[in-house]
Design goal:
The complex is a heterodimer of chains A (109) and B (115).
Chain A (H helix, E strand, L loop, with lengths): L3 E3 L4 E4 L4 E7 L6 E7 L6 E6 L4 E3 L2 E6 L4 E6 L8 E9 L3 E4 L3 E6 L1
Chain B lengths: L3 E4 L2 E4 L5 E7 L5 E7 L5 E8 L2 E5 L6 E7 L2 E6 L8 E8 L10 E2 L3 E5 L1
Parallel strand pairs in B: 2-11
Antiparallel strand pairs in B: 1-3, 3-8, 4-5, 4-9, 5-6, 7-8, 9-10, 9-11
C-alpha cells in the first residue's frame, strides 16, 4: 500500500470554479503535511503547509483530518494558471517525506 | 541566484555506463535529498543527508551511491546504468526537523535517459 494516495484526475474545471482534492495517508505517525504544485516538466514547488487547525492562503484552503488520515486542498475561483499537478505530502521520522503521485488539474477558459 | 542547482539538466547515456549528477544549495539548509520521479510521476525518496551524514537510505540498488563532501553539496553517482534507471532525479534541501513547516526546496531536476 502506498504511503500517500491521491486521485490522479484529471479534474477538468472551467475558470472561476471551485475544486477540491483529497489525499489519504497511511502512517498515523505522520507529523507534517504539505501541498506541492508541479508544472509540466518542472520541479515541485511548495504551495502550502497544512496545519491541524486548517489554513488559508488567498484562494487556497488546506485542511487536515487526523482521525480519518486525510488532507484536502480547496481552490476557489480557479484561474487558468492554476492548471498543474498537485502533490500531497505526509512527513515523519526526521524529514522522511512521502509524496502522493499527484492530482492533475486542468482549468479551461 | 538559484537556490538548489543540479547538473546536468539532461543526460542521455548508454546502458552499462557510469554517470554522476551534482547538486548544490545556497540556502544554508542542513539536510539534502535525492528523489526519483518515474514515468508515472511518482516521487520516491532515495537518500537523505544531514550535515554530511547519511540519515535515509531507502531500498535503492547499491549501484547508486550518494556523496556529500559538505552540507551544501550532495552528489549522486550511478554505476552500470540500466534502462529502468531512466527517470527524472530531483535534488532537494530543507531546514531539517520533522515539524519543519517550510518543506523542501527542489532543484530543477536531471532528466536521465538510458538507451
Amino acid at each position: 500500500r502506498k504511503e500517500v494516495e491521491q486521485d490522479p484526475g484529471p479534474f477538468n474545471v472551467p475558470e472561476g470554479a471551485t475544486v477540491a482534492f483529497n489525499c489519504t495517508y497511511s502512517n498515523s505517525a505522520s507529523q507534517s503535511f504539505f501541498w506541492y504544485r508541479q508544472d509540466c516538466r518542472k520541479e515541485p514547488k511548495l504551495l502550502m503547509s497544512v496545519y491541524s487547525s486548517g489554513n488559508e492562503d488567498g484562494r487556497f484552503t488546506a485542511q487536515l483530518n487526523r482521525a480519518s488520515q486525510y488532507i484536502s486542498l480547496l481552490i476557489r475561483d480557479s484561474k487558468l494558471s492554476d492548471s498543474a499537478t498537485y502533490l500531497c505530502v505526509a512527513a515523519y521520522n526526521f524529514n522522511k517525506f512521502y509524496f502522493g503521485s499527484g492530482t492533475k488539474l486542468n482549468v479551461k477558459p | 541566484d538559484t537556490a538548489v542547482s543540479q547538473t546536468p539538466k539532461y543526460l542521455v547515456t548508454q546502458m552499462g555506463n557510469d554517470k554522476s549528477i551534482k547538486c548544490e544549495q545556497n540556502l544554508g539548509h542542513d539536510t539534502m535529498y535525492w528523489y526519483k520521479q518515474d514515468s508515472k510521476k511518482f516521487l520516491k525518496i532515495m537518500f537523505s543527508y544531514n550535515n554530511k551524514e547519511l540519515i535515509i537510505n531507502e531500498t535503492v540498488p547499491n549501484r547508486f551511491s550518494p556523496k556529500s563532501p559538505d552540507k551544501a553539496h550532495l552528489n549522486l553517482h550511478i554505476n552500470s546504468l540500466e534502462l529502468g534507471d531512466s527517470a527524472v532525479y530531483f535534488c532537494a534541501s530543507s531546514h531539517g526537523g520533522t515539524a519543519d513547516i517550510y518543506g523542501y526546496t527542489f532543484g530543477s531536476g536531471t532528466r536521465l535517459t538510458v538507451v
